[in-house]
UniProtKB/TrEMBL annotation:
InterPro entries: A-crystallin/Hsp20_dom, HSP20-like_chaperone, Small_HSP. Pfam families: HSP20. PANTHER family: HEAT-SHOCK PROTEIN 20 FAMILY MEMBER (PTHR11527). It comes from the Bacteria. This is Hsp20/alpha crystallin family protein. It comes from Candidatus Methylophosphatis roskildensis. Belongs to the small heat shock protein (HSP20) family.
Length: 138
């Protein structure tokens, strides 16, 4: 049996007309993400968070008991030129955040943070355990 296809002159006229002359794939404009490593020591936690392409001023860390939240905002502009002709202009603006709960509460007064070469390092000491009080029954 023969296959019959319908001929559409308008569709055939524009087929292949809207071919992208430039590759618009998002090779350099990934959505931001935070990759986090957490290590526990007897005294606290060491957190390493990868934040490539994000400035130090755009990073915020919040500690609420045993919950740690890291948020960041990325602003990226990319323009590819060939001579005086602009071939492609890309912009990316976005926020990303991660929250995680640790096994013990954090002593916020002794916590510290350093940011160097796209890596955020948090030193989060554990809060001193309060000795339980034994009640005497009268």
């Amino acid at each position: 049996m023969a296959n019959i296809s319908r001929w559409d002159p308008i569709d055939d006229l524009f087929r292949g007309f809207f071919v992208k002359p430039v590759d618009f794939s998002a090779q350099g404009a990934e959505a931001p993400s935070i990759k986090i490593d957490v290590k526990e020591t007897p005294d606290g936690y060491a957190v390493h968070a990868e934040l490539p392409g994000i400035r130090k001023d755009d990073i915020h860390v919040a500690i609420d008991g045993a919950v740690v939240s890291v948020s960041a905002e990325r602003k990226q502009d990319k323009e590819v030129k060939e001579g005086e002709r602009v071939l492609r202009t890309e912009r990316y603006f976005g926020k990303v955040s991660r929250s995680f709960q640790l096994g013990a509460e954090i002593d916020e007064s002794r916590a510290s943070a350093k940011f160097n070469d796209g890596v955020l390092e948090l030193t989060l000491p554990k809060k001193a355990a309060v000795a339980s009080k034994r009640l005497t029954i009268q």
